[in-house]
Amino acid sequence: MHRTPYRTLYAALFLALTLLGPTLPGTLHAMQEGAMLHDPKANFEGYRTFAFAQDPEEELASGSEQGGSPFVERQIQREIRYELARRGYDQAGLGEADFLIAINVGARTTTWYSVQQTVYRDPYETYFTQWGAVRGIELRTFQDGTISIDMIDGQSNKLVWHGWATEPIAPSKTTEEIIKGIVKKVLDNFPPGSKSS
Questions:
Q1: Which domains does the chain have, with CATH numbers?
Q2: Can you tell me the mean pLDDT for 183-191?
Q3: Quick one: CA dihedral 166, 172, 178, 182, positive or negative?
Q4: Lowest mean pLDDT among 64-68, 101-105, 158-162
Q5: DSSP classification of residue 44
Q6: How does the average pLDDT of the chain come out, rounded?
Q7: Cα-based distances in Å from 156 to 98, 100, 153
Q8: Most buried residue, 20, 63, 78, 138, by CB count within 10 Å?
Q9: Is 136 exposed, middle or buried (CB count within 10 Å of its CB: 0-12, 13-18, 19+)?
């Protein structure tokens, strides 16, 4: 089976859409929950079936884990399948689907530094007071996970929808809970014009 190298194309596309999104002749829909860009000429009402452009099983067998773990990708695909089924879409074969889905995953770590100073008084004689200061540095590290989902028209092979969302990766949450939350945020904006609940 011949497969188009989607990862390189969509990594570049994601970067271009993120940087140039507001200047493109599409629609930028930025919200706190997630954001998306779409082709206003695309007929989203005609889309009923989907297929995944990436195959985690194939990636695992070949040892190529471009863009993330095949296990995480499989979980993301499961959540997308569930969310799209709720909206009335069915999964089809790769050559038969109305639109293809490509997934990109990323994480970013941010560290905040806080310098703390404590001033204290140390009386060393009855009539004199000595002042001093103690400094300490406090580090706080936060991690955010981002998932972007691209929808490609099955006939023209053109990108028609691009959605993404970011969520803090809390140690108290499981990977499954984090993925479920991010995928729901992204797909709440699909299809364009409908806010799913």
A1: 6-108+145-187 (3.30.160)
A2: 91
A3: negative
A4: 64-68
A5: G
A6: 75
A7: 10, 11, 6
A8: 78
A9: exposed
Confidence of residue 161 (pLDDT cuts 50, 70, 90): very high
- 3 state DSSP class of 56: helix
Count other C-beta atoms under 10 Å from residue 18's C-beta: 13
E-strand ranges in 124-182 read 129-153, 159-168
Residue 150 contacts residue 101 (beta carbons within 8 Å): yes
| Pure H helices in 27-160 | 56-62, 70-86
Contact yes or no for 135/117 (Cβ under 8 A): yes
Q: Which of 190, 174, 167, 188 is nearest to 75 (CA)?
A: 174
pLDDT in tens, 11-44: 555 545 444 444 333 433 333 357 889 999 999 9
Q: Is the pLDDT assigned to residue 81 strictly greater than 50?
A: yes
Closest CA to 98 of 149, 54, 151: 151
Q: Around Cβ 150, how many Cβ atoms within 10 Å?
A: 24
Token pair for residue 56?
């985690």
**Nearest CA to 72 among 12, 164, 146?**
146
Q: For residue 58, what pLDDT is reported?
A: 72
Residue 22, phi then psi, degrees to nearest 5? -65, -20
Q: What is the CA radius of gyration of the chain?
A: 24
